[in-house]
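Anyone up for a design puzzle?
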């Protein structure tokens, strides 16, 4: 069955890309191993996504943002980063509404909204409950064999299937994979002490803690700990878990009452050595899988959608080959230029702030002092907060209907 574009992976990046390309009228297939019901109504997974103003602007253009209720969007005005007991935090953001860092939205709410937006596009077909078992990349077509026996063909194949991407591996594209041997635990809590819409992070001995604001009296607790500690914490009953969190956060937010269980995720970062090859491209975590410490992962995924759409939507609209090599190379250059400095800087921060040697501790404290100077604050805020000068103009079709099930 021939399509113009086949996207493997119906996470936010894959769904948003399908929505962004739909104005071309080209036939697009979305492949995902999950069943359609799970994609349409994703369960809460503990993850709260920090969205920059730039990402929100793109989601508005895609018709995703307005599907997320206002009661599910939480203000993020500032962020503070501490090193152990040091009183000198790195601060970025502003109390002014137009200069805020962005906002926090649950991953499941973003996924649901993106699915609904893609569902309106009659030229987008969901092929759910099946997975890719093999690829055959020819001169004119990328051919995909599925576990249910079906085969799909398209001039362009997109891998959007996680940082552990099977498609990326089948394409022969290597990646720098950094398995950190730690787990990230996330879960919602009620707290006594106001957070004032400020996200706070502590690099402590043997652990990293964060608290993300989710409206009055509510927050997301994020712990990065050893896999052994993670197993023990996950086994605690609610009362014991609350006491454990209170102890680890040193009582900074008073009583911490868990709302539901904690969720655990192994920490692995990834950076693909190439983002494109003949008749294929990588987006989202398949291209760049970030450490969550700087909250750039989702935002870089949205950036990859924006960059790739800029290059291939005009080709699809003209009926030209969407796998044009010059266009794919331009996409790769743009996304690498945006993502590589952030990826390297994030890894350097993680390396420095998890190093307990005396010289590393001294360097951290010096860096936090420098970060309080006006020049440093200006640079950090410009990088993290300002949307790009030219917002993407993604023309969306005024068509109804539901996402067709393959």
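Challenge accepted. My sequence:
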């Amino acid at each position: 069955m021939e399509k113009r574009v086949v996207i493997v992976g119906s996470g936010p990046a894959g769904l948003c890309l399908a929505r962004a390309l739909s104005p071309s009228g080209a036939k697009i297939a979305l492949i995902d191993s999950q069943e359609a019901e799970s994609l349409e109504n994703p369960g809460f997974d503990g993850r709260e996504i920090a969205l920059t103003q730039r990402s929100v602007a793109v989601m508005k253009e895609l018709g995703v943002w307005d599907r997320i209720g206002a009661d599910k969007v939480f203000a993020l005005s500032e962020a503070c980063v501490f090193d152990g007991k040091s009183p000198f935090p790195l601060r970025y953001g502003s109390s002014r509404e137009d200069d805020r860092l962005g906002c926090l939205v649950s991953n499941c709410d973003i996924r649901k909204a993106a699915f609904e937006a893609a569902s309106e596009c009659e030229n987008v077909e969901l092929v759910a409950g099946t997975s890719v078992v093999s690829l055959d990349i020819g001169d004119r077509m990328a051919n995909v064999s599925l576990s249910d026996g079906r085969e799909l063909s398209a001039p362009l194949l997109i891998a959007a299937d996680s940082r552990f991407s099977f498609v990326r591996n089948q394409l022969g594209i290597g990646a720098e994979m950094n398995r950190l041997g730690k787990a990230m635990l996330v879960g919602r809590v009620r707290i006594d002490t106001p957070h004032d819409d400020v996200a706070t992070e502590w690099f402590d001995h043997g652990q990293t803690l964060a608290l993300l604001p989710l409206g009055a009296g509510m927050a997301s607790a994020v712990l990065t700990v050893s896999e052994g500690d993670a197993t023990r914490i996950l086994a605690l009953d609610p009362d014991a878990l609350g006491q454990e969190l209170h102890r680890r956060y040193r009582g900074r937010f008073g009583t911490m009452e868990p709302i539901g269980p904690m969720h655990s995720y192994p920490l692995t970062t990834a950076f693909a050595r190439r983002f494109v090859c003949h008749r294929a491209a990588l987006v989202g975590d398949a291209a760049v899988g970030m450490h969550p410490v700087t909250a750039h992962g989702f935002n870089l995924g949205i950036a990859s959608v924006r960059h790739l759409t800029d290059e291939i939507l005009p080709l699809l609209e003209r009926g030209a080959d969407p796998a044009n090599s010059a266009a794919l190379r331009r996409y790769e250059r743009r996304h690498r230029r945006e993502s590589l400095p952030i990826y390297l800087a994030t890894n350097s921060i993680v390396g420095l702030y998890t190093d307990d040697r005396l010289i590393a501790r001294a360097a951290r404290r010096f860096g936090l002092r420098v970060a309080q100077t006006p020049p440093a604050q200006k640079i950090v805020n410009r990088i993290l907060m300002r949307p790009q000068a030219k917002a993407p103009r993604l023309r969306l079709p005024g068509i109804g209907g539901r996402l067709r099930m393959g």
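A detail worth pointing out: The first helix runs from residue 12 to 21.
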